[in-house]
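Exercise 4. Each item below gives a protein and its sequence. For each, produce the structure-token representation.

Item: CopD family protein (Viridibacterium curvum).
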Amino acid sequence: MLYDILRSLHVLAIIVWVGGMVLMHFIVRPTVAELLEPPQRLPLMARLLGRFFAWVTVAVVVVLVTGVAMMRLIETGGPTPAVYLHVMMGIGIVMALIFGWIRLSEYPRLRHAVSTAALPVAAASLSRIRRLVALNLALGVLTTLIAMLGRSL
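Answer:
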């Protein structure tokens, strides 16, 4: 039962993280870009990303903690975990590091640029965040496919 609880929390956190990236990247960002000019768009995106990153921070911690806990349960309960589980964990760690870079480096740069009305700097920072989120989204989709197909591979 513990494993099932951990797995449920793990999947819910992944839904928040990967689903949130889909929403922000494909729906929110393009819509805001269509409707608003940079002086309005950049502060709005900074605020939206702040709220989103708060949720993702929790989700990343939950994903990492539950992932490690599930691996430990598998290791103590039987044979070595399948290779695909190690691959998923490796990709998850890379994704967490990318998110850490966004959250601790790029996002503060964006907020500072917005607060000082340095719109070109803010736009460049938002562009870097977008590219890093796109990379993390691709890694998240890849990891999900590995999770779904791993036993078959």
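Check: Residues 53 and 103 are 7 Å apart (CA to CA).
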